[in-house]
Amino acid sequence: MRASILNDMRILVVDDELDVLETLEELISLDAPKCKIEKASTYDDAIKMLSSEIYDVVIIDIMGVEGFDLLKIASDRDIPSVILTAHELNPTALKKSIELGALAYFPKYKLSEIVSYLESVLTND
């Protein structure tokens, strides 16, 4: 098994659904056990963390936690960001996400593929 590029990275995951936060932590930890994953379930917690910490990447739920605002803050701090959504691909939201600096738009129904997806996005493969 090859070592994941996510090892030794620090990732912030922001979602108002606690089960999604736990699932992402478990999935990433399986392939990248040395990855440090921090979680925020509210907008306020995410703001505090984004404002005071350095992350290699942030995964932001677009709904429920004012995701576009958080994306703007992450982009202003040059933190690579991936948008997470439970909804079908929405062209308006996709366009806004890209304009605000998101690297990618990832559907929640594919959570099991998150590690390979992040690796691909972060290495431009």
List the topology elements.
Blueprint: E1 10-14, H1 18-31, E2 36-40, H2 43-52, E3 57-61, H3 67-76, E4 81-85, H4 91-99, E5 104-107, H5 114-123
Parallel strand pairs: 1-2, 1-3, 3-4, 4-5
Helix pairs in contact: 2-3
Summarize the structure.
The chain is an alpha/beta fold.
Q: What would you note in describing this structure?
A:
Helix 4 links the parallel strand 4 and strand 5. Helix content is 42%, strand content 19%. It is globular, with a radius of gyration of 13 Å. Strands 2-1-3-4-5 form a five-stranded parallel beta sheet, with helices on both faces. It is an alpha/beta fold. The mean pLDDT is 91.
- Structural class by secondary-structure content: alpha/beta
- Extract low-pLDDT stretches: none
- Give the strand line-up of the largest sheet: 2-1-3-4-5
Q: What is the ordering of alpha helices and beta strands? A: EHEHEHEHEH
Strand tally is 5
Number of helices: 5
Helix content: 40-55%
Average pLDDT metric = 91
